[in-house]
Specification:
Elements: H1 4-16, H2 28-40, E1 44-48, E2 56-61, E3 68-74, E4 95-96, E5 99-101, H3 109-123, E6 132-138, H4 149-154, E7 163-167, E8 175-178, E9 180-189, H5 204-221, E10 235-243, E11 253-262, H6 268-285, E12 290-299, E13 302-303, H7 309-322, E14 329-331, E15 348-351, E16 365-367, H8 368-386
Parallel strand pairs: 3-6, 3-7, 7-15, 8-14
Antiparallel strand pairs: 1-2, 2-6, 4-5, 5-16, 8-13, 9-11, 9-12, 10-11
Length: 388
């Protein structure tokens, strides 16, 4: 008979061997696999999509509304990349030196495998279930989740549950908050002229240089003075700059695109107002150019209630299994947790093996011992909460 550890590694290998890169985002094959796995474990399953690519699975075991748990992991991965030079086959699920390698091995097929196997363990004891276990295998997380988890929630496919666990890379620490993001574009319009006498024009790139320094001061003098206790300060990063047509022409237009990370408690509209105030101040200082900001895209933050009884239980079980303090941490990247806030009645955590620093990288891997610990914690928590 296979041990649970062997079953877990084998299951992760099966998931890695079903490519699900996004883009293009075709998750039908891996969704079919997850649906079949959950059905064989006794779950009622729904396989749904808003289009012909973004297939997700919702599995439900048990009928009572409470206590109820939701285990969520995403089934899409980032693309392989044009210049990726892996030392192993990224779709083989190679095991070496206590690690499982492969595209999506840690993000997010390791939490997915742990959740599926833990769910199967509970399904094998279905007659003892008092409550409900929901497992969501969601498409589209890697591109924001709007056609995945957000669509599932908005269209009534995900029932409200007492407690939600979102599988991501936290090194098996329990994260109760993550940052949100606001994207924006800043534009400077100047006046073109020949570069031989540039003072006849108004160089938009020069104007943008001053605006970027304004944003640096905003980071140092505003954002870093109001840190979040788990996530540290909010941040702003200039990720793209575009401007000018030729070295011998004074640039009449320049654009930057920024990533403004929000910490829990920040109102996106207040953040937008701060950015617009920076632009207004620069405009007042330089009336010979035109400064604007817009094209906002918002992905919200998440923060869970620290006083939940179920959260305290999850922290205790995790601390016992890992030897770490029973205290929550913050998760710096985003996740689908932001789409599940209205589904979680008594709390939600982000939790799983490995680190996001390994995700999205060549020779991505998850350590087998960490993966096994994730599985044991998820199984223990579900059993203690749901089994009579």
């Amino acid at each position: 008979m296979n041990s649970p550890a062997n079953d877990l590694v084998a299951l992760l290998q099966q998931l890695i061997r079903i490519p699900s890169p996004n883009p293009p985002g075709d998750c039908r094959d891996i969704a079919d696999f997850c649906a079949a796995y959950l059905r064989s474990a006794g779950f009622a399953t729904t396989l749904v999509a808003p289009d012909d690519r973004a297939w997700s699975v919702v599995g439900v075991l048990g009928e009572a509304d409470s206590p109820s748990l939701l285990y969520h992991a995403h089934i899409d991965t980032v693309p392989l990349g044009q210049n990726a030079r892996w030392s192993v086959d990224p779709f083989a699920g190679t095991v070496a030196d206590g690690r499982v390698y492969g595209l999506g091995s840690v993000d997010d097929k390791a939490p997915l495998a742990a959740m599926l196997l833990a769910a199967a363990d509970i399904g094998a004891q279905a007659e003892r279930v008092q409550g409900r276990l929901v497992v969501v295998c969601a498409a589209e997380e890697e591109v924001g989740g709007r056609l995945g988890t957000k669509w599932l929630v908005d269209n009534g496919h995900v029932p409200a549950c007492d407690f939600v666990v979102v599988g991501e890379q936290t090194q098996n620490r329990v994260a109760t908050a993550h940052k949100g993001v606001l994207r924006a574009a800043f534009h400077v319009a100047g006046r073109t002229s020949h570069a031989t006498d540039p003072w006849r024009g108004r160089n938009a790139i020069n104007g943008m240089a001053h605006l970027i320094l304004d944003l640096e001061r905003y980071q140092a003098e505003v954002l870093e003075r109001r840190p979040h206790p788990l996530l540290g300060p909010a941040s702003i990063n200039v990720g793209v700059i575009e401007g000018g047509v030729s070295a011998n022409v004074v640039a009449d237009a320049c654009t930057i695109r920024v990533d403004r990370r929000m910490v829990p408690g920040e109102d996106p509209q207040a953040v937008i107002a701060e950015l617009e105030q920076i632009v207004a101040a620069r405009q007042a200082a330089d009336p010979e150019r035109t400064y604007t900001v817009g094209e906002y895209l918002v992905s919200n933050w998440f923060q869970s209630d620290a006083d939940s009884e179920l959260l305290r239980r999850f922290l205790r079980i995790s601390a016992e299994a890992t030897g770490t303090p029973p205290a929550p941490v913050g998760y710096l990247p985003g996740s689908d947790a932001k789409h599940l806030v209205d589904v979680a009645r008594q709390g939600m955590v982000v939790f799983g093996p490995g680190t996001y620093e390994v995700a999205h990288s060549t020779d991505e891997f998850v350590a087998v011992d960490e993966l096994e610990t994730t599985y044991r914690i998820l199984r223990h928590f579900a059993a203690e909460t749901l089994l009579a």
